[in-house]
Structures are given as structure tokens and as C-alpha cells.
Amino acid sequence: MSQAPDLSRRHKAAVPFIFVTVCLDIVALGLIIPVLPSLIADFVGDVSRSGYWLGLFGSMWGLMQFFASPVIGALSDRFGRRPVVLLSNFGLGADYLLMALAPGLGWLLLGRLINGITSASISTAYAYISDVTAPENRAKYFGLMGAAFGVGFVLGPLLGGVLGDIEPRLPFYVAAGLSLLNFVYGLFVLPESLSPENRKPFSFRTAHPLGAAKFLMKNADLMRLALINLTVNFAHSALPTTFVLYAALRFNWGAKEVGWTLAGVGICSAVVQALLTGRVVKAVGEKKAMLLGLTFGVIGFLGYGLAPTWQAYILFVPLMSLWGLAGPSVQALMTSKVAPQEQGTLQGANMSLMSTASIFAPIVFGAVFAVSTSSHLPLAFAGACFVLASAILCAGLLIGTTVKAVIRPGSAAPSASMH
């Protein structure tokens, strides 16, 4: 079996390529964040009722990821990471064009369904990083991946807010152009990361949600870590589901203010992921870094929900960004538990489980927002979604205290026979 450190040396130049690929992907996704809720509200005709529709859109997007992620993960283990990433970028470009031209709510929903399928390949990028790095260095590189997300969410929502003020559908056209540009970029410069000897035949046993769950359950710590990711993803859904509507109602913000705020969030996140994660993990280890990040997340969500003014809300943004310590640490611990030829299956299974949160969380948070912002309740109750997210993330923190996995320096990913 090829050792991860050798792969890292042989493909060292590939890391910047996948970084840029992910960054462009997230810029395209971030472009539509400031305008999608408003577009739905225009079709529905009522801001409060649009909370339910926005929740439905998010849930259907998650449902597509739930079914598509294990298939995409298994395909990347069979055919390699490169073709999966390229097909996804091309599909995203075509999908954004469809949403830009959507004449009604039904067509817009169809676009989000397709988007859920094509976006599922982001997990392949994590498998890509696992292919080219040693286990003890993965938290650092996963942190850089998180920084790519942060940079994408700086540029995407900021540009989306500005473009949305010009024309609500313009961000969709720009997102389509970026995704197709990403496809062309990857076609010429993105190398393959999975060597032929580390590929495995496509198997339907793990290419469906039930098989994916069984794959995660074969190791107790792996399942615990997957459950932590589930709570993180569930809690995070409170932000894209309700933030735009919450900010408009509570602080009277428009697309431009939302775009600038999300840009600030992205900058703080990128700083934490790129500059702090590797250092913190090196100092205290993956488990303690994970617990530290989850603790900041609990505090941050609580602050978001209880902040009485927009100035108070902004003060919690840097604190909340330290939540970013958790994700790379969890990913690093998980990837050390499986063999190189199972990294795609792992990421697909992990995303499939997390997608269950994407299915139910938007409905939950959309309904909570609709109830908490009804006319007979004080405006202070509008932050109930974020308080609920804090409680859910607290459950993930409790699970995290039971994780025993530790990555030893110089270790390699175990073979499949070790499970």
C-alpha cells in the first residue's frame, strides 16, 4: 500500500490547484446567498411565509446530497477525484443558468435540486487532500480548505450583494460563469490525486445512504466523529436558512449590508482556518482543538441569538469564527481511521449523514423563525433559531468529550483489515 507521505511529495503542487478550485466553487455558491431569499419572497409575496419556502428549498437541497454523496464518493474511489470535480463544476454552471432564467418558484426549486447533486462533490475535494497528505498534517491542510471556503464567502456574498442591488438575477449569471471557468481551469491544470493502485471497484454496498451509515458504524470513534459533524451541520443551517430574513427584520438590513457582514464572517473564518488551525492542533492535538472550536461555536450562536443591536451582533463574529477550529480537527481524526482507497467513500458517507441535517434543519429553523417572528411576539424572540443552534451544538460538544482517537506523528492510514 502506498504511504501518504510519498503521495504528499509526489503531488505537493496539486494542493494550490484544489484550493483555487474549491474557492471558485464557494464564490459561486456565495454569490446567490444574499439574493435567493428575496427572490423566493418575490415569488411567494410574503416575507414571513417565505421562511417556510426557504426551509423547503434547503431541505430538498439536502435530500439530493443525502442520496448523491455516497454515489459520488464511491465513483471518486473508482475513477479518481479529477473527473468527479470537473463534472460537478460543469453541472453547477449549467444549473446556475437554469436558476437565472427560472420563470417561477417551481423552476427555481428544480435548480436547487440539481445544485444539491452537483455540490455533493465538495466532499471529493476533502478526499483529494487526504490522498496527498500524511495523517498528522491533515488538520493543517483541512484548515487551508476551510480558508478557501472563507475566501469564497468573502468574495461571493459581497459581490452577490452588490450585483443583487443592480439586478436580483445577475448573481446567478455570474455564478454560472465562475463555475464554467472553474471547469476549464480544472480541465487544464488539476492533476489526479488517487493513484491507480489505491482505487477500488465501485460497490453498491456503500453507494447508498444505508450502506454509507454502515461504513461509518464499523468504528465507534468514526461514528462519534460523524455525529459531531451532523450536529455541526444542523446548527450551521440556522445561518443560511434565516440570517437574511432575520437581519432584514431585526436590523432593517438589505442585500448590501448582508453581503458586507458575510464578507466579514468569511475574512475571520479564513484567518482562523489558514493561520490558527495548524498551530493550535500542533500545540494541543486534534481532540482538544475540536472541543475548543465547538465551545466557541456554542457561545457564538448564543451571542447571535441574544444580541440586542446590530453592533452587538457584529462583536460576536470574530468569536464565532473560532468555531472553525473544530471542522479540520474532526476531518483529520476521521481520515486517519480508513485506508487510502476508502477516503472517497468516507467523505461521501460523511456528507450523506450530514445531509440529513440539511434535510430537516431548514424546515426546523424556518418554522422556528416563522413562529418566533409572528406579530404577537416581541422582536427580541427573533433570535430563537440561533439559541436553538447553540443548544444543538452543545450536544456535539458532549459527544466530542467521548472521542478517544489520537493521531500519532508519522502514522499512516490503517488498512481496511484493521476495522
Automatic annotation (TrEMBL):
Transmembrane segments: 17-40, 52-72, 84-103, 141-164, 170-190, 225-246, 258-277, 289-307, 313-333, 353-371, 377-399
Domain Major facilitator superfamily (MFS) profile per the UniProt entry, residue ranges: 14-408
Keyword field: Membrane, Transmembrane, Transmembrane helix, Transport
Listed Pfam families: MFS_1 (PF07690)
InterPro entries assigned: MFS, MFS_dom, MFS_trans_sf, Sugar_transporter_CS, Tet-R_TetA/multi-R_MdtG-like
The keyword Membrane is annotated on this UniProt entry: yes
Location in or out of the cell: Membrane
Entry annotated with the keyword Secreted: no
Membrane topology: Multi-pass membrane protein
Organism superkingdom: Bacteria
Principal subcellular localisation of the protein: membrane
PANTHER family the UniProt entry points to: MAJOR FACILITATOR SUPERFAMILY (MFS) PROFILE DOMAIN-CONTAINING PROTEIN, MAJOR FACILITATOR SUPERFAMILY DOMAIN-CONTAINING PROTEIN 10
Family classification: Belongs to the major facilitator superfamily. TCR/Tet family.
Function: Resistance to tetracycline by an active tetracycline efflux. This is an energy-dependent process that decreases the accumulation of the antibiotic in whole cells. This protein functions as a metal-tetracycline/H(+) antiporter.
The protein, known as: TCR/Tet family MFS transporter
Gene source species: Asticcacaulis aquaticus
